[in-house]
């Protein structure tokens, strides 16, 4: 039993990498994930990545922000300390719209950032966990979970055939670059 | 990736589209004639102005769309450009129709009442400032406020501005079409570069003149009142309704078997546009409302006072529901921008919604001789009559007929030598 946890295939060309994905899928090698320095159109569909649910989170945060400030204004301006401003009703809804809008936007923006950081484990101050740092520079990396039933040599030769410039057998999932 | 075998197919304007647009035109003509014959000339004129303005604005949005795409150097839109170009090609016709309506409204008069409630000979449109003697001290139609504005708001200068602005937009639209069709013939970058340059110039001119265009054609109906937001408010309405008509046209053309290269990704972009600018429309609408509401100055609130009367109040709210709530809640989801059926429904809601928006701008001021004779028996649901519906049908038919006829003039339905064409064909979001 080898200690290899992940096999990485590093490509220097996105087309070769896409070709490599096809080859691996044809041979029923389960792909853990793919890391690329730039967005590649159509890769989500090919890998069967589920659509992001970030939009739903954004909507909920927006609703939360809007209702929070509306409640605060209602409490302060209508319930607790009503002030006559220009002879308007105490509960003058049009006056409340701008701040409600602002808080909706604010909560949406902050909420989306927080959700994104949570989902990607990118908390401020934490060392980023990456499989190979060059995936943020000039390498297109296919990561394969080595615990599967496919012999490692077969995976290596498939990657080599597809044009991988380097193949790594990693004992750890993430490599620290601190 | 699907291969596109031919870009050469020309659009043929036949069948159902032709029949129904001609039926629309006939219905419109009958209704307009009926409106004049049944003694409702004032309402008919107001409706003609409404639809003439709507028609012109949709065509202007076509020129604006092309110019924005060139200036932004947008790639995705290269394969849809022929549709806004067909709108732009229709602009001269729309402009002539609008100028004819406005001219007739200014010069055809009837016996009515002036602002003071005295019997006077008043024009059908713009009666507040186009009435004879409005700027002459001592005349019984003299109006102090209008007299102060008369160096700008007088019939000759008004007509000169209208002709100048519309002529300018139509000229730029024509130029962009000419560059694009030349590009089809000879290829290369020279036409694209010229389009970019002229689009930049056009957008500057357009940005400064559309507010004045809206002030003139719509805001001057209630010439005592003014709002500096009005120009942008009308710009937003023009842009959203233009995008909605464009989306609907593209969806219908695809259903008829044309534009096979337009995918759900292109429609997604149009959906995003409609969504974003519906919110922009609400933003300017509300900015205008809030300032007037908050300052509470009588000469400003009179505008909303009229629209808050029982016969308009429900329409006031329906306007917000159709133009803000509906696109906001429906188009927010990614999937609804990608399903043709939902997108088409929203486009139709927005087309009707912005008709209602223009209705709310025009009718309270153009009917019933200002704030004189009240119609106490009027209900909100009787405020939209067969004249409104018939005129809408007539102009919808006229637009469809003229726009699709313009589309047949193009040798191909795609700008086949556009430098960004491949990017557009592979557009993916």
From TrEMBL, chain A:
Residues spanning the membrane: 54-76, 96-119
Coiled-coil residue spans: none
UniProt cross-references to InterPro entries, sorted A to Z: ActD
Domain of life according to the entry: Bacteria
Residues annotated as signal peptide: none
UniProtKB keywords: Membrane, Transmembrane, Transmembrane helix
Keyword set includes Cell cycle: no
Name used for this protein in its record: DUF3341 domain-containing protein
Keyword Membrane: yes
TrEMBL record, chain B:
PANTHER family: PTHR43044, QUINOL:CYTOCHROME C OXIDOREDUCTASE QUINONE-BINDING SUBUNIT 2
Protein name per Swiss-Prot or TrEMBL: Quinol:cytochrome C oxidoreductase
Source organism superkingdom: Bacteria
Membrane-spanning parts: 20-39, 51-71, 91-108, 158-177, 198-218, 230-251, 272-295, 315-332, 339-360, 380-404
Coiled-coil regions listed in the entry: none
Membrane among keywords: yes
Keywords from the named record: Membrane, Transmembrane, Transmembrane helix
């Amino acid at each position: 039993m080898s200690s290899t946890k992940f096999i990485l295939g590093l490509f220097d060309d996105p087309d070769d990498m896409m070709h490599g994905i096809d080859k691996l899928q044809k041979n029923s090698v389960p792909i853990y994930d793919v890391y690329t320095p730039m967005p590649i159109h159509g890769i989500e569909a090919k890998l069967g990545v589920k659509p992001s649910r970030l939009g739903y989170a954004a909507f909920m945060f927006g609703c939360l922000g809007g209702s929070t400030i509306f409640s605060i204004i209602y409490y302060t301006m209508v319930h607790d300390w009503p002030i006559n401003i220009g002879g308007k009703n105490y509960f003058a809804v049009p006056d409340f719209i701008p701040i409600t809008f602002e808080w909706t936007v604010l909560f949406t923006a902050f909420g989306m950032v927080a959700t994104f950081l949570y989902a990607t484990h990118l908390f401020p101050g934490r060392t980023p966990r990456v499989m190979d740092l060059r995936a943020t520079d000039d390498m297109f990396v296919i990561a394969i979970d080595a615990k599967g039933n496919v012999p490692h040599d077969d995976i290596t030769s498939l990657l080599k055939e597809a044009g991988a410039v380097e193949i790594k057998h990693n004992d750890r999932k993430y490599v620290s670059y601190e | 990736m699907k291969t596109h075998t031919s870009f050469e197919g020309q659009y043929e304007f036949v069948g159902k589209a032709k029949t129904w647009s001609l039926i629309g035109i006939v219905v419109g003509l009958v209704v307009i004639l009926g409106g004049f014959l049944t003694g409702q000339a004032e309402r008919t004129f107001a409706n003609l102005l409404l639809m003439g303005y709507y028609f012109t604005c949709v065509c202007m949005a076509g020129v604006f769309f092309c110019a924005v795409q060139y200036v932004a150097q947008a790639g995705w839109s290269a394969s849809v450009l022929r549709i806004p170009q067909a709108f732009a090609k229709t602009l001269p016709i729309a402009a002539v129709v609008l100028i004819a309506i406005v001219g007739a409204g200014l010069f055809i008069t009837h016996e009515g009442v002036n602002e003071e409630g005295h019997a006077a000979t008043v024009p059908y449109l713009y009666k507040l400032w186009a009435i004879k003697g409005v700027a002459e001290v001592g005349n019984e139609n003299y109006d102090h406020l209008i007299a102060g504005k008369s160096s700008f708001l007088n019939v000759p200068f008004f007509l000169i501005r209208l002709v100048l602005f519309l002529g300018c937009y139509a000229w730029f639209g024509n130029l962009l079409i000419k560059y694009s069709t030349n590009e089809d013939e000879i290829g290369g970058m020279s036409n694209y570069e010229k389009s970019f340059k002229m689009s930049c110039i056009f957008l500057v001119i357009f940005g400064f003149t559309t507010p004045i265009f809206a002030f003139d054609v719509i805001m001057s109906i209630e010439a005592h009142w003014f709002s500096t937001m009005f120009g942008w408010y009308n710009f937003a309405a023009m842009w959203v309704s233009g995008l909605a008509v464009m989306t609907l046209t593209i969806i219908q053309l695809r259903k008829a078997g044309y534009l096979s290269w337009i995918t759900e990704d292109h429609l997604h972009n149009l959906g995003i546009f409609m969504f974003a600018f519906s919110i922009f429309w609400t933003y300017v609408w509300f900015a205008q409302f809030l300032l007037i509401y908050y300052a509470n100055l009588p000469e400003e609130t009179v505008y909303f006072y009229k629209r808050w009367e029982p016969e308009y109040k429900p329409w006031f709210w329906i306007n917000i529901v159709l133009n803000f709530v509906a696109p906001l809640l429906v188009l927010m989801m990614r999937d609804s921008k990608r399903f043709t059926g939902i997108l088409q429904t929203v486009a139709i809601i927005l087309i009707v919604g912005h008709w209602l928006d223009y209705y709310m701008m025009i009718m309270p001021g153009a009917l019933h001789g200002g704030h004189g004779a009240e119609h106490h028996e009027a209900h909100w649901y009787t405020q939209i009559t067969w004249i409104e519906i018939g005129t809408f049908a007539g102009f919808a038919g006229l637009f469809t007929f003229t726009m699709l006829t313009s589309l047949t003039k193009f040798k191909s339905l795609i700008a086949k030598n556009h430098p960004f064409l491949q990017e557009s064909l592979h557009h993916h979001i």
